[in-house]
Amino acid sequence: MAADEPAPLVEGAARQPATRRSKPSDCLGLAATATAWLALIAFAIGSVGSALWGETTFLATQVFEGFAPWAATDPSALEAPVTNQWLGDTLDAVAPGMLLHQHSLSTGELAGWDPYVAGGAASASIPDDATFSPLSLPWYVLPHTYAPGAVKLLEIAAITLGMSLLLRRFHLPSATWALGSLVYSSSAFMVAWTNWPQTRVAAMIPLLFWSVDAAVSRRRWRDLVPLALVTATMLAGGFPAVTGMAAYAVGAYAVARVLVSTRQARELLRAAGVLACGVLGGIGLVAWQLLPFVHLLTNVVDFSSRQQTPQSHIESEALATALVPEIYGGPVQSYWGIQHNPIETFSYIGAAAFVLILVALVVPQSTRERRFLRAFALIALATSVVLIYVGGFPLGVFQHLPVFSNNSIGRATSLMGFLAALAASIGLGSLAETGQPRLVFARARPRPGRAATDARSATDAPSWFWDWRTALRVVTTAALAAAAGRLVLSAWPEVPPEHWAAIKEAIIRGGLYCIIGGVLALTVVLTRHVVARLAAAFLLPALVLIPALAVTAVWWPKGPTEYFYPVTPTHEFLADNLGHDRYITVDWTMFPGTSSAYGLRAANGHTFHTVEWRDLLLAADPEVMTTPTYSTLKSTDLATVLASPVLDRLSVRYVVMDPWAIPPGSVEQLRTSEETTHLESGRIGTALVTTPFRGVILTLPEGMPVGPGGAEVHVRAVTDGGTEVAATTQAVAVPYPVAQMWIPLAGEATAGETLRIEVSVSGVSSPVALAGDSGDDLAISVLRPLDDDLRVVHTTGAIVVERLSTFDRIRWADTEVVANSDEEEVELLASGVLGEATVLLENAGDAISPRSSTAEVSVLTDGLDEVAVRVNSTGDGWIVIADSVRSGGWHAHVDGEEVALVEAEHALGAIAVPGGSHLVELRYEAPGMRIGLAITTATAVALMVVLFVSSRSARRARAHARRSHPMVGLRPWSRP
Questions:
Q1: Which of 149, 494, 533, 822 has a 20 to 30 A CA-CA distance from 467?
Q2: What sign does the dihedral 96-97-102-105 (CA atoms) show?
Q3: Residue 865 near residue 926 (C-beta atoms within 8 A)
Q4: Which one, of 155, 339, 167, 124, lies nearest residue 242 by Cα?
Q5: Closest CA to 359 of 447, 425, 419
Q6: Coil, strand, or helix at residue 523?
Q7: Each residue of 345-392: pLDDT tens digit?
Q8: What pLDDT is attached to residue 77?
Q9: Rounded Cα gap, residues 179 and 426, in angstroms
Q10: DSSP 175-192
């Protein structure tokens, strides 16, 4: 089939074989194809870069060095600079989840429940982490440090496959397949959301459109299988906002496509049936995860804070980043002039892609099918731009629909990028068309059998400037180009003076890309000269590639492999001492959410919290919720927060805080001195201090000069005999100002003992001046402990404070109290009047009225989805489990028989246990998973049957056709 021959809407129509002679344009086509594909390959290799061969990891691991305990263990400056400050979620939520799943599956266990974050949360049983997306496969077959980069390559491959299959159906040249894939892979959403599950969903959008187009065009039952597989992959990707918005767009595409292809009721119903069965098949394939996810959405997730309004759109000014990505700052430097963060407002498409979109708008297409594709791409692209950046009434209409009502419209940039890539591909295809210069804007010659409206021949067609429709397109194109220029220039007043030079250069560079691309396109359209076409073939892919690589160099992370979740002394301490209890973090220490990667139970983190667990955290610290899904204690009133009885009942044994933060205590100045002593490397200053204390405070009248590799302050507390009682090394990466320096010490083990404090420094560029006598005697202050049941137990890398008053996470209770309301529950728990042996019940009907009893509780199993304890008691009582069990799925058993898991203490659970020796077990099975597995199995079998039967029927039909018409299907040179 000739390259410009239109594809029939109904596949299988008889086609007449045609012979063709070699033309000069064939060489140009080969050059354009090779250049476009080489540009795509260069983008994939160049953007992933050193992570491709394992020198780095495609994850912003260097971000860890900005937080305790990682930062405090390395005094040197970062060798790999942090190029993107907005990748925290990928480090404290996405990657830890994948590490947990990989580890559990390697041991033959499915981590349906993650016990390590926020008291526990559903994990692999729901698609949140894209655990079972095919694009997540590298996490399970490759080393962890290599997996993120391989996932990105798979995303690019999926985009390329989808764009190629889709554009091939419209007989666009293969160069457009590669260029469209490059434009979409480097578009804003695919760049800014990299390493989130979002891009694993968005990468399937081209395949979704292809599978829907095949289903509505061919209307064969076997075409529902690819649609089902693509739908299932998107749903398994774990970000329903992108899937839902793509579903609306592809639904509109399907309706338009099928109405263009046929008006027969029977064919319309058949197309609708194939589509419906394909979508239902995709849902069925992941039903085992979707049913638990629906339960989570309806019972755990609170959408009240996510409701959208017509004003909930991205600022229109942000659209300037489509051409000049750094015009409003970005992830490296501060951003300005816009309210939303750079990830939400980033709108990059590329100057060359914008030019090709204008070409698609102005140049008529040679076939009805391409005219349909162009019309849909441009109309849908314009609609997405209006919804995302203008809002108002159109957005308000859409916000009455599911998905749009509680998701930011900024997520639609995933669709905008795809539609822009589709339009740019059509524009490149228009430039690749052959024909006479004056007739380039005229209608193409009709195919035999076309409608009368297409009967006008090319020789009769008017020149382009006589066609009012073409003139209108030209005027529209000029207006859009002018509007884009004005939008970019209007951003200039917002640029801070210190960034004028860089942004001016970026604007000029973007303008040159547009001018060069525009001149190339205009020359090709007007002259069709071989030199112009050859230049366009080589330069247009380069104009897309070069800025795309520059953008990804800033946005895409490449962190040192040695920073890939390194184990610090703080992690080792918690692993050795935490046992079955929990820790909680203060501010950004431990990067809350990474607990899943280390297998350490935390009371806070980055995940969906149940409403009840969140209520208890808020009762301990009203500022604990940084976002609806992110919790960590704030350091504003630690003395009150750490004494909260709620933390006792949540089994918070340890509190981890930054080494520069001062824990609760009273400062006592031991001695003042107006003199100074200078410490150089190797010299020790001393002071005498009596215990107990939580640390010392040094006075630095002249600050601390730090060497190029960073400095360290070493403080030891030793007895007269030289026995070390406590020691801390405080890392200082940058010069320390004139101030007092806080050094924590775990010196609370004994009381009334006199210890010698020894201070030394290393890595300083000059001697350090400390308050004290001219000798080695230092003048220091100490932090005395309060009567607060707290004790500093670890100081290397981070301060770990032990809470001595906390309750065991799995405990025995022989007394019960019943609350009358949720509010009363929280008040009672926060008051501290309830002892460890008392359980607070929510329903009077659950009470068993136990008498005073004691019990020995031995924990046998404390895994991901199962807890088992042996109880030996002198009477009836309760086993209280301080886990977040309100999300459903937990089932209790006593001696193998299922019993009620009673709602207790607002967010926890309790199991009634009779006196004697009993085995108490708690197991997690995601709600709806068993039914979902049955649906998934049945769906998979049904799809295989459909594929088998349909393929067999097709083979029989072809065999029958060959018997009836022996000449059908033979090549021209094989005919007798």
A1: 533
A2: positive
A3: no
A4: 155
A5: 425
A6: helix
A7: 999 999 999 999 999 999 888 888 999 999 999 999 999 999 999 988
A8: 53
A9: 10
A10: HHHHHHHHHHHTSHHHHH
User: What is the Cα–Cα distance from 109 to 104, expressed in whole angstroms?
Assistant: 5
Distance separating alpha carbons of residues 300 and 293, to the nearest angstrom: 10
Query: In whole angstroms, what is the distance from residue 248 CA to residue 730 CA?
Result: 56
| Single-letter residue type at 881 | I
Q: Per the structure block, which two tokens stand in for 736? A: 């320390």
Cβ-based burial of 539 (10 A; exposed 0-12, middle 13-18, buried ≥19): middle
What's the token pair of residue 332? 């490296």
Buried/exposed 757-793: b ≥16 CB within 10 Å, e otherwise: bbbbbbbbeeebbbbbeeebebbbbbbbbeebebbbb
403 DSSP assignment? T
3-state SS, one letter per residue, for 88-135:
HHHHHHHHHHHHHHHHHHHCCCCCCEECCCCCCEECCCCCCCCCCCHH
Q: Which residues pair with 878 in a beta bridge?
A: 813, 912
Q: How would you classify the pairing of strands 866-873 and 855-862?
A: antiparallel
Contact 88, 183 (CB under 8 A): no
Query: Tokens in use for 90?
Result: 């990928």
**Cα distance between residue 935 and residue 944, in whole Å:** 14
SS3 149: helix
Every domain of the chain and the residues it spans = 573-649, 666-785, 810-927, 930-974
- Prediction pTM value: 0.90
CATH class of 666-785: mainly beta
Distance (Å, whole) CA 13 – CA 6: 12
Q: Does residue 15 carry a pLDDT above 60? A: no
What is the helix (H) or strand (E) element at residue 727, kind and residue range?
strand 724-732
Q: Give 659's contacts (C-beta < 8 A, 6+ positions apart).
A: 68, 69, 72, 728, 730, 744, 795, 797, 798, 799
Indicate the pairing of strand 838-841 with strand 815-818: parallel
Token duo for residue 786:
């309060």
Question: Please, is 551 exposed, middle or buried when counting C-beta atoms within 10 Å of its C-beta (0-12, 13-18, 19+)?
Answer: buried
**CA angle (939 as vertex; 937, 945 as ends), nearest 5:** 105
Run of H or E residues at 824: helix 822-831
Q: Which residue shows structure tokens 């709806």?
A: 928
Query: What tens digit of pLDDT does each residue of 434-478 get?
Result: 443 333 333 444 444 444 444 343 334 344 444 677 788 888 999
Closest Cα partner for 476 from 315, 371, 349, 360?
Answer: 360
DSSP 587: T
Determine contact, residues 233/197, Cβ cutoff 8 Å. no
User: With contact defined as beta carbons under 8 Å apart, do 285 and 308 qualify?
Assistant: no
- Which of 488, 549, 490 has the alpha carbon at shortest distance from 324? 488
Dist. CA 232–CA 226, nearest whole Å: 10
SS3 364: coil
Residue 632 CA, distance from chain mean position? 20
* CA distances (Å), origin 427, targets 175, 348, 423, 518, 707: 11, 18, 6, 12, 57
What is the Cα 360 distance to its own chain's centre? 33
**The tokens of 174 are what?**
């293969």
Q: DSSP secondary-structure letter at 65?
A: G
193 and 434 in contact (C-beta within 8 Å)? no
Of 549, 532, 550, 544, whose CA–CA distance to 31 is shortest? 532
Q: Whose CA is closest to 888, among 117, 116, 125? A: 125
DSSP string, 911-955: EEE-SEEEEEEEEE--TTHHHHHHHHHHHHHHHHHHHHHHHHHHH
Tokens of 442: 């005229």
Interacting residues of 955 by C-beta distance below 8 A, sequence separation 6+: none
Six-digit token string for 638: 């630690």
For the record, the structure tokens of 566 come out as 């390194």
How many angstroms separate the CA atoms of 402 and 240, rounded?
Answer: 11
pLDDT digits (tens, 9 = 90+) for 628-655: 899 999 988 999 999 999 999 999 999 9
